[in-house]
Write a sequence for this structure.
């Protein structure tokens, strides 16, 4: 390694993988369909600033985030394209949204009126997208209430309705019945709005899974997150097609190698007790980096291209791994050797998907929980 990370645990983010994945997605869309890069939650752990700059260079039309804070962070990083806050923004953030030219999602008239009021006092308009609840039952206006909602929004000073969108609950499943029902409901709504001259300019529904497996849902824009990072929308039911590349690798350097005598225990609570002479290595990574302590174990990391099983409890900043078998077969493990937590080492590979299965969650959770104190290194 030529460039030293500021810490002995770090992420390597491949900019060419991000660019490649964006192109893969773009190649599936018509020329009239925009592509929104969803980079909420620190770009799913990949680092919002550099990831969004890379994707802007690669041609992402727009950016989607969860909160206004995330949107402002993107502007500070030099993102000039439109940014939509996908979550709820309270009226007291209107001035900040206006100052940074951020588009907001609206789901209730009271907040929208207050947002518009702030814009109008500044002699400006705030762009909004209406969120429709077609069956995810999270955020959104029920389809039946949307025409009246849009008609009322139109009368508000300071508000310009640019878009309308919905979100699928099950587009990553093999059975598309529920997702199709959601889409039909959305399309019927769009048709009704069109008939009454109320259809906003940009209608969008597709996330990564729908972009890849339900091309009829592309509409005026698709919003992709997980596939941009080269990760499966669902490992079993919606794996990425060939051509995508995982952009993230998580690495750590061995900080100590030691012997363990039979009956000696490892880490807090003495959960692991050696039943034979062992060699163990310490890695400077822990749950305060987002390396999960519970509910289950990550299992192993890779050292010298071999699995090194985690022993005992993961601590806040450190983890102990078993290198006995590696030393017996491949050779001596030394201070400074590189361990891979996610990624490839020789023939061996730990994917975010495999890790997520071990700890009983999904790959979104695995990467987005990697905390800011783990430095991100951007490589070609
Ligand atoms: C509203 C909305 N749109 C799009 C996405 C992107 O989804 P995915 O990462 O599955 O592509 C998300 C992420 O969960 C979302 O909440």
């Amino acid at each position: 390694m030529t460039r030293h990370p500021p810490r002995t645990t770090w992420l390597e983010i491949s900019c060419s993988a991000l660019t490649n994945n964006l192109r893969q997605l773009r190649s599936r869309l018509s020329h009239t369909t925009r592509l929104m890069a969803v980079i909420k939650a620190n770009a799913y752990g990949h680092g919002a600033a550099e990831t969004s700059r890379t994707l802007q260079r690669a041609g992402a039309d727009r950016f989607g985030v969860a909160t206004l804070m995330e949107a402002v962070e993107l502007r500070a990083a030099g993102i000039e394209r439109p940014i939509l806050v996908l979550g709820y923004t309270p009226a007291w953030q209107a001035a900040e949204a206006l100052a940074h030219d951020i588009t907001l999602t609206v789901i209730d008239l009271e907040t929208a009126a207050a947002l518009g009021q702030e814009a109008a006092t500044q002699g400006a308009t705030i762009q909004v997208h209406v969120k429709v609840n077609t069956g995810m039952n999270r955020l959104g206006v029920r389809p039946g209430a949307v025409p009246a909602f849009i008609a009322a929004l139109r009368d508000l000073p300071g508000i310009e309705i640019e878009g309308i969108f919905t979100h699928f609950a099950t587009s990553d499943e093999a059975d598309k019945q529920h997702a199709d029902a959601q889409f039909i409901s959305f399309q019927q709504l769009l048709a009704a709005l069109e008939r009454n001259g109320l259809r906003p300019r940009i209608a969008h529904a597709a996330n990564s899974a729908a972009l890849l497996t339900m091309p009829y849902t592309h509409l005026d824009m698709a919003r992709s997150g997980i596939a941009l990072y080269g990760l499966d929308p669902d490992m079993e039911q919606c794996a990425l097609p060939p051509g995508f590349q995982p952009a993230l690798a998580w690495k750590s350097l061995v900080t100590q190698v030691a012997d363990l005598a039979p009956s000696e225990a490892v880490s807090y609570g003495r959960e692991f007790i050696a039943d034979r002479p062992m060699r163990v290595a310490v890695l400077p990574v822990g749950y305060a980096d987002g390396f999960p302590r519970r509910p289950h174990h990550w299992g192993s990391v890779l050292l010298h291209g071999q699995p090194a099983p985690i022993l005992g409890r993961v601590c806040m900043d450190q983890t102990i791994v078993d290198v006995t078998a590696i030393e017996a077969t491949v050779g001596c493990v030394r201070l400074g050797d590189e361990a891979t937590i996610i990624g490839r080492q020789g023939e061996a590979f730990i994917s975010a998907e495999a890790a997520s299965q071990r700890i009983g969650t999904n790959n979104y959770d695995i990467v987005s929980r990697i905390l800011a104190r783990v430095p991100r290194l951007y490589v070609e």
User: Anything to note?
Assistant: The chain has twelve helices and 20 strands. Residues 28 and 212 are 8 Å apart (CA to CA). The domain at 248-350 is CATH 2.40.37.10 (Lyase, Ornithine Decarboxylase; Chain A, domain 1). The pocket of pyridoxal-5'-phosphate is lined by residues 38, 86, 167, 207-209, 223-227, 233 (CB under 6 Å).
